[in-house]
Write a structure and sequence with these properties.
Blueprint: E1 9-15, H1 25-33, E2 42-48, E3 61-69, E4 80-82, H2 101-110, E5 116-122, H3 135-158
Helix pairs in contact: 1-3
Length: about 160
Amino acid sequence: MTGDTENGTMLVLGLGNLLLGDEGFGIHVVRRLREVDLPGNVRVVEGGVGGFNLLGHLDGVERLLVVDVMMMESPPGKLHLLTQIPEEPGKRIVSFHQVGVLELVKMWRLLGYEPEVTFLVTRPESMEWSTELSPPLQSAIDTASELIQHLCADFSEKE
């Protein structure tokens, strides 16, 4: 169950490309979340490969949880909750098609929004052409879904 766009909303945003194997992890997780009951003030969105078109989903959001993959020193499938926005040193954007979630959150803040932002990430094992996740990331879907359900419940209790 998903909620509406009133203030006090939590948005779970799954990012990724379903055609590049583990890159689609965030999308697979939010699809799993659609199979469970979530509090009414929680919205679940497949953000795909993102960009500025996601700004419209952020209206009224108090807490944003981004589910994605990230290159990091960690075994594939191990989940990490990050509360600091990671930086991509040296990244230069030359096209609106290169805008990722980090730029989106920064733009959101420039527009006056100050949401709580959390990232739930794991390291990919394979980003080859495939619609399937690698075994470690496939195994992490249930754990990610359960963790997100707890985070959503905690958020709703505070409201």
